[in-house]
Amino acid sequence: MGRKDRIELMRKIEAHRGSRLLCCLTSDRQNAPGIIAKDFIPIFFNHLSGFSEHKKVDLFIFTQGGDTLAAFGLSRLLREFTSSVGGAVGALVPEKCHSAGTLLVLGASEIFMGRAATLTPIDPSVNGPLNPVVEIIPGQRQPLPVSVESVAGYRTLVKEDWRLNDEATGVAFRILAERINPLALGDVYRSRQQIERLARTLLTLHRKDDRNIQTIVEQLTRGLGSHDYLISRAEARDLLSSQVAKDDPELEKLVWALFRDFSSDMQLGQIFDLGMLLHSALAGGKKLPTLDEQKVVVIESIEAGDEFERAIQMSMAQTMTPAGPTQAPQMAVVRAGWKHYN
Predict the structure, then answer these.
(1) CA–CA dist 295, 277 (Å, integer)
(2) Within 10 Å of residue 208's Cβ, how many Cβ atoms?
(3) What is the pLDDT of residue 189?
(4) pLDDT digits (tens, 9 = 90+) for 228-256
(5) Is 275 in contact with 243 (CB distance < 8 Å)?
(6) Which of 58, 81, 228, 265 is 20 to 30 A distant from 133 in Cα terms?
(7) DSSP H/E element including 239
(8) d(Cα 303, Cα 306) in Å, to the nearest integer?
């Protein structure tokens, strides 16, 4: 299918829900991912401004996560366009809505999850110039993200599992500070406080059950053991109660069909493998260099769409090895940016 067919599916979903629909998808392709970012905010604003005043806006979302503050801002922006008319924000989740995506949909009064849909914990990782660095290959160093809950887990291990005495505890934390800059550890503590505050703020926009809100925040930030833990629809209902919508087979069918169309267009789930693509190009008689065009983000409504596209130039280059010169795959980003379409 394509945009024309997607528009028809969007119209059917809007009619079924009595809402306006905004779709946001970020690529989950290995080696070609997309993430939620702050530059989504003006694009969301333009789409929402194009909607006539409406009491209900649904966000169709597929993402592996991204910038938590961007997700927080997007969630509040959606509310700005409905709260003035006593309306509500809904979220439609066909499959992955992970990490910062889960934070984003906490601000929705209603979250519709299909049977394949999953949420995840929202505990963040800290990335910065003071992070520890590892050498992936000789001469290539890469900073490591520091998981907020991994640091908290180390503290729990030392204090509660190993039950070290004061002197041994001091040694354990000195070793930690030698591996991770103390200022980065301070950022870890602040990030944990911040993510809890963001989640609580979004939930209190539409919920008044303070005790349940606290339980939700604790579970999503520190209670599930791993950032990769997948929260199913049934478990989401146990945690979020009526915020997760009841089953609706007709809506699930429409949502899944729309997701399948986006998935085909964006090549979701397909690995970007430079060597394999070059081999295929040469086998097909193509001359090098050749381009691979990637749709990294799509934000789309009935009226218009925006895509963040990236073009990768792929070629073979001669490199020296201990065994002598050889041809090795090489790539370069030659174009990256947003494209608007109707």
Answers:
(1) 16
(2) 8
(3) 58
(4) 899 999 999 999 999 999 999 999 999 99
(5) no
(6) 228
(7) helix 233-240
(8) 11
Residue 185 structure tokens: 């550890």
Burial (0-12, 13-18, 19+ Cβ within 10 Å), 237: middle
Euclidean distance between CA atoms 88 and 143, whole angstroms: 41
Helix (H) or strand (E) holding 243, with range, is: none
Question: β-pairing, 133-137 with 140-143?
Answer: antiparallel
Of 193, 147, 146, 155, nearest to 175 by C-alpha is 155
Contact in structure between 240 and 216 (CB atoms under 8 Å):
yes
- Residue 316: both structure tokens together: 């073979």
Average pLDDT, the chain: 88
Instruction: Say if residue 162 is exposed, middle or buried (CB neighbours under 10 Å; 0-12, 13-18, 19+).
Output: exposed
CATH 3.90.226 fits 3-120+230-341, yes or no: yes
**What six digits make up the tokens of 178?**
């030698």
Helix, strand or coil for residue 292? strand
Closest CA to 218 of 137, 121, 152, 132: 121
The low-confidence residues of the chain, meaning pLDDT below 70, are 53, 84-86, 125-132, 134-140, 142-144, 146-149, 152-155, 157, 181-190
Both tokens of 219, joined, read 């579970």
List 125's β-bridge partners, or say none. 147
CA 261 to chain centroid, in Å, comes to 19
How much is the pLDDT for 144? 65
DSSP letter for each residue of 106-156 = TT-SEEEE-TT-BB-----EE-STTS-EEEEETTEEEEPPEEHHHHHHHHH
For residue 74, give the amino acid letter.
L
Residue 146 pairs in a beta bridge with: 126
How many degrees, rounded to 5, is the angle at CA 56 between CA 51 and CA 57? 60
Structural domain spans, the chain:
3-120+230-341, 125-189
Q: Where are the alpha helices (DSSP H) in 18-110?
A: 40-50, 68-83, 100-105
80 vs 72: CA distance, rounded Å:
13
CA torsion 146-188-100-116 (nearest 10°) is 60
